[in-house]
Amino acid sequence: MRRLSRFLPLMVAIVLAGCGKPDFSDAEKKTIASLALSALPSLKPDTTNRFADVPAAAALGSTLFFDQGMSRDGTVSCSTCHKIDRQFQDDLPQAVGVGHTNRRTMPLAGVARDPWFFWDGRRDSLWSQALTPLENPLEQAGNRTAYAHYIKARFGERYERIFGPLPDFSDMPLNASPLGNDAETAAWNAMNDAQRDGINGVFANIGKAIAAFERSIEPAPTRFDRFALDLVTGAEPKGDAVFSKEEILGLKLFIGKANCVTCHDGPRFTDNSFHNTGVPPVADLPPDRGRIDAVAQVEADPFNCFGAYRDGDAGACGELRFMVKDAPQLIRAYKTPSLRGAATRPPYMHAGQFSSLDEVVAHYAKAAPSVEGVSEVRPLELSDRERAALVAFLKTLAE
Description:
- The chain is an all-alpha fold.
- The protein has helices at 2-18, 26-35, 55-65, 78-81, 126-135, 144-163, 182-190, 193-214, 223-233, 245-255, 291-300, 318-321, 357-366, 384-395, and strands at residues 274-275, 334-335.
């Protein structure tokens, strides 16, 4: 019995080594700690939306998020594409609302921390982003005047308790928008400035309510976070926090040789920036040049940070004021998506070009040239074992 107890520590060490006992340099540990969810700072106030942290606004926003009445034909809501049980995305290569879009639905966990929104960053606040699908003819396909009438008819008292009195809609058309069909744009142009401003104010508040709800959607801890905590604190890993040799190799590659962490950094595994990575276009979809075309769109948006419907002062508009407007690297550049939960939500890339993480890793290893502009990716000499290890590590971000 004494001999058995003498060898027990050695046996445990052998078992742990077989399971991939962590062996990282101090620099690697520092990088890993920076990726853990525990390193995520507190959510900053959104000074452009004074209702961002008002519970009643978030409650109304939640109602509107799931309300199919917030669409032209009463069949589509925000939750049609952002499904609550699928990390607020839809598992489709391209989102489908009233029509078929040309982009993949992005998940929403931690979205309130982004400086830019959509794959190309064509909106600069969470509340202005929330407005865009409402009038997009392929998504919810409504018009802002119809939404204002709908809010008054169905949620008037709730709205006024939060945002104050609604405008008088008695002399306003039922359907009007500067982005609508010919009849709707004509009706919009026939309205006076005060009427248009009143409708825009209500429309902006719809976005601010939805954004208040979306601010509550945060990423959940995963196996990686438990592993990282044990690694940093020196605790003995237990349960699912024990990484296999393959997962450890994948993590080392991610922060080292494969250089994934250059763009997928921080606790959300994204630099919130835009990159051309040579992702090919999808046949039969409209031309899509990414960030280069979004610059003009965000500047023209009346609900952007410089617009009349922003709360607070222009001190919050640094991203918009100093954004890069015309540079070769913007061509076919798309936002770096968060990798948290990515393993369980194929397909991948801005239009669902790749069906599996294996295909994604193979794309980066090959580094094919971009069809337009210049890809930032350089070929990686990864063995089959290393590619599989990278995928194994990525799965720890979704468990």
